[in-house]
Write a structure and sequence with these properties.
Length: about 300
Amino acid sequence: MDQPGSPQEPQQAHGHDGLPGCHRHPDRPTGIRCTRCDRPICPECMISASVGFQCPECVRTGGGSGPAPQASAPRTIAGGTLTADPRLITKILLGLNVAVFVAVLVAQQAGTDLVNRLDLIGLAIDPSRYQLVGVAHGEWYRLLTAVFLHQQIAHIAFNLLSLWWLGPPLEAALGRLRFTALYLLSGLGGSALSFLMAAQNQPSLGASGAIFGLLGATAVLMRRLRYDMKPVLILLALNLAFTFLWPNIAWQAHVGGLVVGAAVAFGMVHAPRDRRTLVHVGTCVVALLAIVAVVWVRTLQLVG
């Protein structure tokens, strides 16, 4: 782990577009500075104060020269509590995906078709049970279980590598509760759009909708912090091209997750400080209500 520097250390070398590197993570260019010592700080290091942001050293010691605002309890850029392990929720999500994948393999060995009971499907007849199944039949849980469901090793490996890459910076910047809400709403948003636009008996599964939500949230956060947007925009363009050009990919889940993730993240990182909690809760509630409305409309189309 990088060791923090002292308040008297020289300014870090400039990064992309002339932005200085974080004094604790020199490879991360940032446009934000500590209001006490004026050193550059990245999203993982910044802590909300009554005015602006402060670095961890100044919060711990009250250091810095001259008068400075009194620091509040350590908070992330979105108002979440600063934690010792900014990867905890990411690790839990990784574990849940792996656990469901293992459960699917064990069920297959036991002769149980767990995939068909958990994947996303609008409305179909299950030949093994000779009955209607699907979200429109009342099995709304499929909108969520499908987000944690994978069948192929390559599929789960790609999604989990993406989660491990995108998750920790967002979790550090948003806080655990907000990051969890972002991930779940993105996954549900992808499921909802798939339910709305895909054929009623076309199954889909995977964490891709949630991953695209994290990618959209990353773009929003980088824009908020005035980072160089080129890398994330190139990555987003490549993933969208892959989504629409590669066969047998549920592009609806990718687009739905991307839109919901970007919208939720925008509400989280742009909320006014004095109404932050209200705006965050309102943003998540609006996103959830929009998802429910889409599912309700599609259900009426299929069974109404």
